[in-house]
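FORM 7B: Structural annotation worksheet

SECTION A. Query
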Amino acid sequence: MSSPSKNVKGYCLVTGASHGIGKAISYEWASRGVSIVAVAIDSYALKELKEDIESNYKVSCLTLTKDLLDINAPKEILDWCVENNIDVQVLINNVGLGSTGSFEDTTLDFDISLVKLNVFPMIQLTKLFLPVLKKFEKSFILNMSSLGSLRPIPYKALYSASKAFIYSFSRAISSELKEDSVYVSVSCPAGVYTNEAAVKRIKVSGKIGKWTSLNANIVAKYIVNGMLNGKRLIIPGVGAKFLMVLMKLLPENLNRWMVGRNMKRNIIAV
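SECTION B. Predicted structure
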């Protein structure tokens, strides 16, 4: 029996592809013989990604430097793909911004940027690329949420709220698009080792935080396997699944108190 990824003949477009989970997902799809369109703001990192993928895998890696805070960027990405005859069969809406701290202490400009980056490119790219995705017998959309989308998180108020939007939006349109063979998945990882700041936060998050956290490459493998198997909700790792069940069982007030206390400890430690 052939691998499910053998049926992916089009490109995989990844936003936020130059670092972290987006980079790991780009490598994971490339390792399965799927060509990549990597979108990010860091042109130097994109150049390195392109060279590494094309030297190690028999696929092409096209790069596009875009700031997705620019409201026009998603349409420019679509236009570029059309002009270059790039048919996108897999859309990875990964780009986003995180923040840990008191809502009162952040600037209004930063707050608006966080919500804009985490939410608007996903909506725009999904809307714009749907006609392209529907050309294929089977196509895929992955929206990157977080385990924090399932409950309010003090000291990550806007971040968890934006991820809750992503979760709800993804679950809703997965039902709408089911008959069109556009498979919409949402991934809700726990902690992910993506950079030095993330490593520091995980180290001070206690035993549960460490147990539920995973390397970005492992998370990417869970995500791609889940997408190809038609999973609508992808929770990477046994630890994260356990934590999800625990969060649902605990009363919201207790959960919010426990998580808030842990977040506050993280702020002090980091």
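SECTION C. Observations
The first strand starts at residue 11 and ends at 15. Strands lie at 11-15, 36-40, 61-65, 88-93, 139-144, 182-187, 192-193, 214-215, 233-234.

SECTION D. Sign-off
Analyst initials: ____
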